[in-house]
Write a structure and sequence with these properties.
mainly alpha, about 60% helix
């Protein structure tokens, strides 16, 4: 989790999101609800608000692993 929280991490937030999802999906098969719960502590450190709206729509939202309130906030911040 330290790596995900690091400000020195040199990658775009959408890449970080994808890496967290890949890590979460590795290993045994699990339900979407279990995966969402497993990833929640890590997703809390992904800065969705600095993602491009297209990244949120095309990459984040289809996985349904982040609460819609979080993505709505991120999208709302883009147009405020």
């Amino acid at each position: 989790m330290e790596l995900v929280r690091s400000e020195a991490l040199d990658m775009r937030e959408v890449e970080l999101f994808n890496a967290v999802v890949r890590w979460g999906k590795s290993g045994k098969k699990q339900s979407k609800a279990a995966l969402k719960a497993k990833l929640a502590p890590l997703m809390a450190h992904v800065r969705f608000g600095i993602m491009q709206p297209q990244e949120l729509a095309d990459t984040v939202m289809p996985f349904e692993l982040v609460d819609t309130a979080v993505t709505a906030d991120a999208l709302g911040g883009q147009f405020a």
